[in-house]
Specification:
Blueprint lengths: L1 H21 L2 E7 L17 H9 L1 E3 L2 E2 L5 H10 L20 E2 L10 E2 L9 H6 L4 E6 L17 E3 L24 H5 L6 H15 L6 E6 L11 H9 L4 H27 L5 E7 L22 H4 E2 L1 E4 L8 E3 L3 E2 L3 H10 L14 H4 L8 E5 L5 E7 L2 E6 L4 E5 L15 H18 L4
Parallel strand pairs: 1-8, 1-9, 2-12, 3-13, 6-7, 6-8
Antiparallel strand pairs: 2-11, 3-10, 4-5, 9-11, 14-15, 15-16, 16-17
Length: 443
Amino acid sequence: MMKHICTVFLMIFTAFSCEAQKKPNIVILFVDDYGWSDVGYRNPIFHTPHINELKKEGLEFTRAYVSTPACSPSRASLLTGKEAVRMEMPRHISGGSEKEYNFWPKDPAQMPSRNWLKLEEVTYAEKLKSFGYYNIFIGKWHLGHEPYYPIHQGFDEQFGVTNASHPKNYYPPYFNVKHNTNNFSKEYGSNEGYLTDVLTDKAVSFIENYDKEKPFVLSFWYYNVHSPIVGRKDWLKKYKKEGLEGQYAEYAAMVSATDESVGRVRKALEVKGIADNTIVLLISDQGGRFTNVPLKGGKLGGNTLGDGGARVPFLMYYPNLAKANNVCDVPIQTIDVYPTLVEIASGKPCNEEQVNGKSILPLIQGKTLENRDLFFYRSYEDQYAAVINDDWKLIKYRSGLHELFNVKEDISERHNLINKKIEIAEVLKKKLSNWEKEAVKQY
């Protein structure tokens, strides 16, 4: 009798384990300040063979956007599937501050902005854990100091986390002492390597040694290519030989170090024998600080809601589902990642009321997605809100100015059609105004 019971239990356990193993592992590579144009297949100045290979083997969303292109809001949105302004986060967190809100001196609206992601918010780590996933977080958090770290937001393990928005240097010592709130020195020991390599070592080690039955989510959020602009020395030497100078040579070296990291992570998946059951996402948190040609705007300069600031690289490798070397030009936002992961992990649509994003699984499957409005909001300067519908984009300024662009026909946003396409402009103005009334709390 006991033998029979044990046999039945073993069958149930085995069936559960096999079912868990059927679910794909997920790797999210989230790069900081990485411009849409700064990939080798768009700009041959940059050596990015591994990212080029990811594009060739996967699916690229060429019109992927961030609803609030700034460090902390972008991270909060990716984690929760919510527009950042709904979480009272129209700006980045002031590093090290324990005040609940911060203010930006030049912000015309003087809107308060949170200094941490509230623990009440539901993250993709918490949700996927409920579906049997193990979650590890590596790298830049910038969503609050302890006790708001990843391990309190659904992650089982974390490495390289501080409350800093960026390192002091990409060579040791990496961070100021006041930011070493997570035993940073102890984690890194006497390591003298480039910061991106050290974090990559941890990611590779995690993959190599992972022995749990359950699938995993590896969230690797890079400090690269955020300032300080410090390239890895070998790559910097190479780029200088090729004629690049100054900060741009340093930046190019940072890009290539990140590309190497992407290659190492993917190689580790292959060696482990799990690459064919692992989804890989490569995304940036906002546009680049240097030139984003042919896109207009960028992280700096007061036009962050231009496509150079709000449009980001978005590549996905989804074996046996997403067609290789394919592109999708349907506008999406990074808030769509949360509901997509939920649908992949659960096999059911994500119907959570607080989530503003939509699952892009139909697009991955080569199907269509219902046309929708994408909204944008940040509170730093005169330019502060925008809406995209299909090919049309309306940008709004607090001073009353509006701009209208057809971003498909005019990718560089050179021709303001606000006085020529009046009917389209009025429709988008009304949509944006209605959304503001509903989404932007006057807290």
